[in-house]
Structure prediction request, 292 residues.
Amino acid sequence: MLDSFFHYLVVEKGLSKKTVEAYSHDLHRFVDYLHSKGIADLRKTAKLDVRVFLHWLKRRDLSSRTMARNLVALRTFFRFLIQEGQLDVSPAEEMESPSITKKLPDILTLKEVERLLEQPNTQTPLGARDRAMLEMLYATGMRVSELVQLPINQVNVEAGFVLLYGKGSKERVVPIGGEAMKWATLYLRTARGTLAKGKESPLLFINRSGKGLSRQGFWKSIKGYGRKARIEKRITPHLLRHSFASHLLERGADLRSVQMMLGHSDISTTQIYTHVAGERLKKIHQRYHPRG
Prediction:
């Protein structure tokens, strides 16, 4: 039943590999829990079993976000069983989801962004590549997974656009911007051929062996640049994405446009950046207003 469910998530729902892996982890934990209670058939799960399982998760000091994700996985799975004629009623449907406090994302200031972007040594092929990658991240707000997997034929440097496929393979077109266009062009004309060493790769950004980069490898480099730039904030995979969205909204961009560029399916996900912009404006007001 689980195998059929995961196949359904990928093929019919179009969920990303990362989301399916999270669902798999949560559901296998639930199955293990049921087995420990002597329940071998998922179809015999009662509402009390789900409620006690959630309480068990809470006692393990898991975050409310993780608990909410577990409940979503269970609801989706039991709905699937009903759809397949395996169940009549879902035991997870009327459970109240734990409230989640949205944590405001950390962002870089403009000066910090500039310092970070200036760190790669652009006289070397790897430095020129890294500068182009950092510029592209900040210019488009794309996810790092989208960046390292970006095919060269989805980038139109002349027109200044990039075609991206985000979560659930949803397509979006995002402007690149002048600086990113400049550095991407320089990388393509000079560094990429040197790195490729005569090998063919469909990807825009490649390593010294002419192959694609891993997310972990690239972000290890970014953390190094963050230390060189003396940025005290924790450098995370989403830091430039958060900064991209916040800086646009601070300068008057409308929320719907930012949502489209980020590839958010729900505008409520994008709205958190309005709180970031509001918090920064409040600090500016307190600092500079004569009666702040």
Summary: The CA atoms of residues 96 and 208 lie 51 Å apart.
